[in-house]
Design goal:
Blueprint: H1 2-15, H2 17-22, E1 27-32, E2 35-42, H3 46-56, E3 62-71, H4 74-86, E4 90-93, E5 98-100, H5 102-107, E6 113-115, E7 120-123, H6 144-154, H7 158-166, E8 173-174, H8 177-182
Parallel strand pairs: 2-3, 3-4, 3-5, 4-6, 5-7
Antiparallel strand pairs: 1-2, 7-8
Helix pairs in contact: 3-4, 4-6, 6-7
């Protein structure tokens, strides 16, 4: 009986990891001059912390994404992206920056988007509780939120459709310079570190 209870408790804990991750603060912010440095995982708490940081530091004009492992709340990431754009902020990747999944999507929100050579941008398909986004037909309402966000940020939804095909949700495709240029992710050429 004790083993059964322990096994059930372990199963509940493991199944709730993503749920719990969303309600823990997993994003770190630091201000250096006119730059807001960001690392971690985007959760439901991230947009509120971002809002407080930029309100307390009005000199910030650029968000530097140093290491973003993704997002456990796409709606929160998208809301933050729209707010970042509305504030007229730029996004930047340093030569050692690594941004994946929702971090790559957040990068798109910069008015000016720059990166140093060596930075890594990784993308893949999103997944709901049932299956990868790439499985849903193009006309499915499941695509609406993310597709519209990418279109609003880049002027085209082509990059959204590319990310769905680039890798499954349990994989990661690292963008090369030709893909970055093709989908117009940057507003200026790649910079030397």
């Amino acid at each position: 009986m004790i083993r059964l209870c322990a096994a059930l408790l372990l199963a509940l804990i493991l199944s709730g990891c993503d749920f719990a991750s969303n309600y823990l603060e997993r994003t770190q912010f630091e201000v250096q001059g006119d730059r807001l440095l960001m690392t971690g995982l985007i959760t439901s708490y991230t947009p509120g912390r971002f809002e407080r940081m930029v309100a307390a530091h009005p000199q910030v004009d650029t968000v530097v994404l140093r290491g973003i492992e993704g997002s456990v709340d796409d709606a929160a990431m998208i809301a933050m992206g729209y707010r970042l754009r509305a504030l007229g902020l730029d996004t930047h990747l340093e030569s050692y920056s690594q941004i994946y999944s929702g971090g790559a999507q957040l990068f798109l929100s910069g008015v000016e988007r720059t990166m140093e050579r060596g930075a890594i941008i990784g993308v893949h398909s999103w997944r709901d509780n049932r299956r990868d986004g790439s499985v849903y037909p193009r006309g499915s309402p499941k695509h609406a939120l993310n597709r519209r966000y990418v279109e609003d940020m880049l002027g085209s939804d082509a990059f959204y459709w590319f990310t769905l095909r680039a890798a499954p949700s349990n994989g990661m495709h690292i963008l090369n310079e030709a893909e970055i240029a093709h989908y117009r992710l940057l507003t200026r050429p790649i910079l030397a570190p």
